[in-house]
Amino acid sequence: MSQAPRAAAVSESPDLPQDLILLRNHIEDLPPEIREKLAPAMSRVVESTQRRRRILSLVQDALGQLRLDMKYLMFDLEATRRERDDYRSRLDRFS
User: Which of 7, 8, 14, 91 sits at 20 to 30 Å (Cα–Cα) from 35?
Assistant: First the structure.
């Protein structure tokens, strides 16, 4: 009886692969004694899949931020080089 709410939550979860949802549904159709043996393993697989998805999302966000930071740094570097060249040319004119 306690398996039904968890199973419903898993099948409604949009971040799970369709194959995992299908496997969960097939496990629910098994006899209770087999289902009870497979349920803990299935729960661990679901949890690890969700954890991997969260980690992947965090990594993608971090990479996006890194790319943006790199663009700003490259812009700053080019601006600094232009300023340096401008100051050198001014210094050369007065020397």
Answer: 14
pLDDT, tens digit, 9 for 90 and up, residues 17-61: 999 999 999 999 999 999 999 999 999 999 999 999 999 999 999
Tally Cβ neighbours within 10 Å of residue 77: 10
The span from the CA of 52 to the CA of 50, in Å, is 5
Residue 51 CA to residue 37 CA, distance in Å, equals 23
What are the tokens at 66?
């890194």
Residue 24, Cβ density class (10 Å: 0-12 exposed, 13-18 middle, ≥19 buried) = buried
Range of the domain at 46: 3-94
Residue recorded with tokens 């803990």: 40
Helices (H), 1-95: 3-12, 18-28, 32-94
